[in-house]
Specification:
The complex is a heterodimer of chains A (about 120) and B (about 110).
Chain A: E1 3-6, E2 10-12, E3 18-25, E4 33-39, E5 45-52, E6 58-60, E7 68-73, E8 78-83, E9 92-99, E10 109-112, E11 116-120
Parallel strand pairs in A: 2-11
Antiparallel strand pairs in A: 1-3, 3-8, 4-5, 4-9, 5-6, 7-8, 9-10, 9-11
Chain B: E1 4-7, E2 10-11, E3 19-29, E4 34-39, E5 46-50, E6 54-55, E7 63-76, E8 86-91, E9 98-99, E10 103-105
Parallel strand pairs in B: 2-10
Antiparallel strand pairs in B: 1-3, 3-7, 4-5, 4-8, 5-6, 8-9, 8-10
The chains are: A mainly beta (about 120), B mainly beta (about 110).
């Protein structure tokens, strides 16, 4: 079945970087856009950016433009997201999510990874 | 900027009850691009409905969606214990997509 499996929880100090992976299976990997979203404790969902798994092109939301990098490894069907310059405001659960339609960028998300909790604390 | 509002903020119901969740848009939107998600505590969101009324894979038919213009509705015909969760509506179709604040069904 279509599945996204993310890497495990992380605890980081302020100023550090975190890299989270998202391994896809059960569908033609290169045909879909993959997105990253996050959800801070008790808050709503915040979209961070997307990557075209066919040509590695990325689009980041302006808020994260300067400190996020999303990469694709087609040999392992894995997308990674690295966030630099962490602050306590980055404490959140980070999700990868596939776009719902092949070869289209609709910003409708299905399925989602299980989430990766990132805690930033000194 | 499009704003989605959801009502009520919370619903207190029992298994077997019917749940009616509303999503209102600040301007007319295409029903082609309205989705609903379910999120249980400690879990990622799960897509229930896209295109207003098209159930996602594996979603039981006790979930139904309807609406047009500025008013959209998700109905759960007979609540099961597994349905108690937060439900979000979403307008999608481009990078200016937005989520509603959610309705908690407990």
């Amino acid at each position: 079945q279509v599945q996204l499996v993310q890497s495990g929880a992380e605890v980081k100090k302020p100023g550090a970087s975190v890299k989270i992976s998202c391994k896809a299976s059960g569908y033609p990997f290169s045909d879909y856009f993959l997105h990253w979203l996050r959800q801070a404790p008790g808050q709503g969902l915040e979209w961070m950016g997307t990557v075209n798994c066919r040509n590695n092109r990325t689009t980041y939301t302006q808020r994260f433009q300067d400190r996020v990098t999303m990469t694709v490894d087609t040999s392992t069907n894995t997308v990674s997201m690295e966030l630099n310059g962490l602050t306590s405001d980055d404490t959140a659960v980070y999700y990868c999510a596939r776009d719902v339609k092949s070869q289209l960028l609709l910003f409708c998300f299905d399925p989602w990874g299980q989430g990766t909790r990132v805690t930033v604390s000194s | 900027e499009l704003v989605l509002t959801q009502s009520p903020g919370a619903l207190s119901l029992s298994p077997g009850d019917r749940a009616t969740l509303s999503c209102g848009a600040s301007e007319t939107i295409s029903n082609t691009f309205v989705a609903w998600y379910q999120q249980k505590a400690g879990q990622p969101p799960r897509l229930l409905m896209s295109g207003t009324s098209n159930r996602a894979t594996g979603i039981p038919d006790r979930f139904s969606g309807s609406g047009s213009g500025t008013d959209f509705t998700l109905i759960i015909s007979r609540l099961e214990p597994d349905d108690f969760a937060v439900y979000f509506c979403q307008h999608y179709g481009g990078p200016q997509f937005t989520f509603g604040p959610g309705t908690r069904v407990d």
